[in-house]
Amino acid sequence: MDFKTNNTRLKIGEGKVSGYLSIFLGVCSFLFTICMYFPNVLTTSEFRHLYTETFVEVFVFALLILGIGFALTSFVLRKKADIALIGLGFLSATLLLFYLFPLQTSEVSTLFTIGLDWLVLDIFFTSVIFIPLELFLPKRLNQTKFHPEWRTDLAYFIYSHLLVQILGIIIRTPAVISFSGLPIAEIQSKVSAIAFPIQLFLALLITDLFQWTIHFLFHKIPLLWRFHAIHHSIKDIDWLAGSRIHIVDLIVVRSFTFIPIYILGFSNAVFLTYLVWVSIQAVLAHSNTRINFGFLKYILVTPQYHHWHHSADPEYYDKNFAIHFPFIDMIFGTYLDKGDKWPSETGLNETEMPKGIIKQTIQPFKLNKKSNP
Ligand SMILES: [Zn+2]
Ligand SMILES: [Zn+2]
Predict the structure, then answer these.
(1) Residue 306 Cα, ligand 2 centroid: separation in angstroms?
(2) What pLDDT is stored for residue 138 in this prediction?
C-alpha cells in the first residue's frame, strides 16, 4: 500500500513511515520530559497534579520503547539509518535527561504558563486516532498529511496549545464581567441538580446556539468575515487544518460560545466532558475520512456535514453552521444535505489568501481587501 504526498509516495515497507514515526515519538518524549523539569512554567495548572513520577515514567518509557521499535524497523527496512538516526537522537536525549537529572513535580501555581504538556499530549493522542483514520479510510485519496500547507496548520495548532492558559483567561473574561453581580445563583443550583446526560445535552445545545449565532455573524458582517476567511482558506481539509483559525476569530467565537458554560452553573463533570467532546468533534468534523456515520449524521455533525460548510462553490456558501447538532441549521434554514455527495473543492474562490501564519494573521487588518464570501 502506498500514500501519495504532494511530490513523493510513502510506501509501506520502505521504512520511511516507521522512520518518521520514530522522530515523532522522539520529539514527543523529549518535549514532555523537558516539561517535567520546568513544571511551573511549561505545564498547565489543570493537568499538573496528574504528573506523578509513576505517570511520567510510564508515559515517557512507552514512547521510548515504541520509538526505538520504529527506528529499528526503519533501519532494517531501509538498510540505512538516515531517518532512524534522527529519531534515535531525540530518544537518546530523552533517556540521558531522565538518568542525569531527577524529575521535578510541582503543584505551585504561577501567573503565566506555557501549555507545552498540553501540546504534546494532544498531538500525540490525536495523531494516534486520526492519522491512521485518514491514512486507511481517506475521503480524498490524493491528499495526505504532507500537503502544501501542513506546516502552516501545524503552526496554528502549536501556538493555540502553547497559549492555552492566557487564551482561557481572555475567553472567560466577557462571561465573568457581564454576569458578575447578577442574581444567577438560583439558576446555577437548579442547573447543577439536573441529571448528568440531560445537563450535558443542554450544555451542548445552548453553546451550539450561541456558536451558530456568532458564526453566522462572522459570515455575514464583512469586517468579521475578514478574520473568519482565514479558516475558510483551507484547501486540503484534514484534522490538523481545523486549527487554522485567526486569533481574533478564536477569541471572539469562544468567548461568546463559552458564556452559557460559565454562567449557568453546569457541574464540573459536565464542564470537563463538554471540553473533551468539543475538542474531539472539532477535530473529527475537519478530518479527511470517508467513515459512514449512517443515521447519526442527522443527530451529530459529521466530517461530511462540516466539509460542506467549507465548500468552495458559491452555491453552497453559508450552510451548516452548527458544530454539534445539525437540527439547529434545520431550524434556521441553513441546513444542507447532499446525500452521499461531498464538496468537490473546499477553500476560497474570490480572495487569494497569503500563505503562512504570520501573513494570514496580518491579512484581516489590511485595508481595501475584497473580502465577503
Ligand atoms: Zn464558517
Ligand atoms: Zn471548519
Answers:
(1) 6
(2) 81
